[in-house]
Amino acid sequence: MKWPVLRGGDLVDVVAPGSASQPQVVEAALNYLKSLGLVGRFPADSMTSAVAFHSNSDLNRFLFLKKALLAKDSKAVWCLRGGYGALRLIPFFEKIKKPARSKLLIGYSDITSLHLQLNQKWKWPSLHGPLLENSRAGRIDPRDLDELSAALFGKVTSIQDELFALNSAALKLKKTKSSLTGGNLTVLASHAGTNLAMKAKGKIVILEDLGERGYRVDRFLEQLRQSQAFSGAVAIVFGDFLKGEEADGQDLAPLAIERFAREIKIPCFQGIKAGHGVRNRPWFFATKAQIVGGASPQLIVDTGVQK
């Protein structure tokens, strides 16, 4: 799957499909796009304080998103923030046709729902990467923002990161060619049993999460395993699982991940810089990807840029 490379002066639609942000965050996000040589468009009436949990009503959030995805004058759709809410927009997609021209959607965390929709239903590529609200100084490592910019403008054509094996199946893996899917563990678990349940057959699944204690990480992994969400996956790669400490300060998420890897026959790895930490590299979904095994395994993902 391909997407059109960005160029200076291109228009980028900014959307808030989940939670709201403060006006100063919106201003900073638009200024960041300007610093990249891009023009950001964010409707002034996108957010309201009258709706609990979300930036606007379900219908209005979808209409803003739909307009951005279908707009012929913009080249990409960049999510302002995650939070909660994209899941509630999925039923609206059944009422619209897939656009003839693809464009890149950028975001992660709660935006996992939209990645599933665009990758599985529309067959579009998308980018699991920094939200615009994280473009502010100190939120994301400058190296990752530079790499993100280089990828969007077609200056790099692949992203790679070192992995380490979590189970015997991973140690035996020599090489596999595939594409990426996945995203936030909690969001993926919320789609189990729905029309948008993750389809991992033949795919490399990446997983990340924030603020989930060890037993909840274990619960979500087990829910996905029992619902056959991982069926046919060629590998599972864990990113960051942060701020899930117990009351006594212990972090039990690693134990849940280790148990899962030990009990499943799918090769499991860890090590990619993806999630809610300061390192959050751009990982392209539904483009060519591969894991090269051996003593120093690596994940290599093509950007899928169309110049």
Task: Based on the model shown, name its key terms.
globular, 307 residues, Glucose Oxidase, domain 1, single chain, Rossmann fold, 2 domains, 22% strand, 5-stranded mixed beta sheet, 8 helices
Structure commentary:
- With 307 residues, the protein is of the alpha/beta class.
- It folds into two domains: 150 residues, Murein tetrapeptidase LD-carboxypeptidase, N-terminal domain (Rossmann fold, 3-Layer(aba) Sandwich); 149 residues, 3-Layer(bba) Sandwich (Glucose Oxidase, domain 1).
- The protein is built from eight helices and 17 strands.
- A six-stranded mixed β-sheet has the order 3-2-4-5-6-14, sandwiched between helices. Strands 8-13-12-11-10 form a five-stranded mixed β-sheet.
- α3 links the parallel β5 and β6.
- α7 packs parallel to α8.
- The two termini are 13 Å apart.
- The model has no long low-confidence stretch (mean pLDDT 96).
Low-confidence stretches: none
Proportion of residues in extended strands: 15-25%
Number of strands: 17
What is the CATH architecture assignment of the largest domain? Answer: 3-Layer(aba) Sandwich
Text of the CATH class of the largest domain: Alpha Beta
Spatial extent as radius of gyration: 18 Å
CATH-derived topology of the largest domain: Rossmann fold
Largest sheet: 6 strands, mixed
- Order of strands side by side in the largest beta sheet? 3-2-4-5-6-14
> How many domain regions?
2
Category by helix and strand content? alpha/beta
What is the helix/strand order?
EEHEHEEHEHEEHEEHEHEHEEEEE
Tell me the span between the first and last alpha carbons: 13 Å
Q: What would you give as the CATH superfamily of the largest domain?
A: Murein tetrapeptidase LD-carboxypeptidase, N-terminal domain
Backbone shape = globular
Number of separate helices:
8
Helix content: 25-40%
- Mean pLDDT comes to 96
